[in-house]
Amino acid sequence: MNSETPVDVVLIGGGIMSATLGALIKQLQPDWTIRAYERLGEVAQESSNPWNNAGTGHAALCELNYMPAAADGSVDASKAVQINEQFQISRQLWAHLVQEGALPEPQNFINVAPHMTFVRGAANIDYLQKRFDALKDEPLFQGMEFSTDAEKIGEWTPLLTKKRNPKQKIAATRIEAGTDVDFGALTRFLFDDLVKRGGEVHLNHQVTGLKRQKDGLWRIKLNHLVGHTPSVVKARFVFVGAGGGALALLQQSGIPEIRGFGGFPISGQFLRTTNPKVVAQHQAKVYGKAAVGAPPMSVPHLDTRVVNGETSLLFGPYAGFTPKFLKTSTWLDLPFSIRWHNIGPMIAVGWQNFDLVKYLVGELMAGRTKKLKALQEFMPTAKMEDWELITAGQRVQVMKKDAKRGGVLQFGTEVITGADGTIAGLLGASPGASTAAPIMLDVLARCFPAQMKGWEPKIREMIPSYGTKLSEDPAAAAASLAATARVLNIPA
């Protein structure tokens, strides 16, 4: 079907980013027409799928990569506080949508899972103590505990200490108010509500062309993969939330803002167990320290997961390399992404990150024995017969130009917007889904500046802390945490 009447908003990709942007726009501008197009037969099948991510609800409560030690051994809490601020915005939005019935009972997508950090050895314990000291008085990190006592750590979660060498020095931090988030379920619920409010979601539709017309509208060519029927839709605004597929679509759009950007794909695997005897002994998400040369998203962690009401444990990720940008795409993604304007930065990144390449090759060649050994560093009693190996989602890290080094590999997300505000897209990975709400608010502010003033009252209704910093107001932070916890049925 070819649409003659332009659509106000087209969302490309059926993941958490598109779902969140669609939800925000329908709240702020209910009369706008919105269509989402997803290449696969269901939404949330790539990075938003619960088995393709760790569902941590990244609030920097346990992830050490947000607070690396400086050369002099000091630690800076600012990045961790910033990530937590962003997660609170997502929490507030979810709580608002639950209260008004746009989302179902919260246990369908968010559940309690204390967040812990676990380290071994004197140097790592010293670092963790410094990190704890830097965070314990921060308003958004209230309730954090620290211990070097194996008996206490075993009370928090037995699998870390059971049959561990008593001479080994260990330490851990814990915040009881951590969560496990099923971003796949959340994505589906958000799209379901979008449809109830008049939006459309078209599955099995692949975007084959994306071009801006002289009249300012975007002409989007589509192929319905069931029957291979072509169609065209015109849109006033396009958001490219296609995960690993976003780079190719933004390149296809021809906007100059995408020049110099490339993508570095990293694959991964997890070990998973549903053995009730094992699962019952661990109620937490426990993060450790990344290996030398490892990318931040490869920090080892032993996680409680709740998916479709069933609790399991997940350990990993075991990183690797494939040139695919999506689990369901082709091995030609990486070579086809190379352009004259990004080949320089990509070469520079490869030269500067040889340790990363070496690490990924080593991980790719690791057998089951090495994988089990990594798990046993967290869980000494682990037996491979209790665990199955599953493939995680692809992560495409941002590579971009840098005046000093030629190119840099960026661990995080990058919003790309056209100069006229009619197109935006998202590149990158972690913390990703956990901070979808603030990222999409940034998209709205950059692409719809004229509407933002009129939207602000509604935004503040949904997100009371909008425009402020909870970390600078202990009373406001405590009130926000308590309010969202009450609605989401999680500890404050």
Automatic annotation (TrEMBL):
One Gene Ontology biological process: tricarboxylic acid cycle
What GO molecular functions are on record for this protein?
(S)-2-hydroxyglutarate dehydrogenase activity; L-malate dehydrogenase (quinone) activity
Q: Enumerate the cofactors the protein uses.
A: FAD
**Source taxon at top rank:** Bacteria
The entry assigns this protein to a family as follows: Belongs to the MQO family.
Under the heading Pfam families, the entry gives: Mqo
Q: What is its EC number?
A: 1.1.5.4
InterPro entries given in the database record: FAD/NAD-bd_sf (IPR036188), MQO (IPR006231)
Name the UniProt record assigns to this protein:
Probable malate:quinone oxidoreductase
Q: In which pathway does it act?
A: Carbohydrate metabolism; tricarboxylic acid cycle; oxaloacetate from (S)-malate (quinone route): step 1/1
Q: Which organism is it from?
A: Microterricola gilva
The keyword Oxidoreductase is assigned to this record: yes
Cross-referenced Gene3D superfamilies:
D-Amino Acid Oxidase, subunit A, domain 2 (3.30.9.10), FAD/NAD(P)-binding domain (3.50.50.60)
Query: Which keywords accompany this UniProt record?
Result: FAD, Flavoprotein, Oxidoreductase, Tricarboxylic acid cycle
Q: Which reaction does it catalyse?
A: (S)-malate + a quinone = a quinol + oxaloacetate
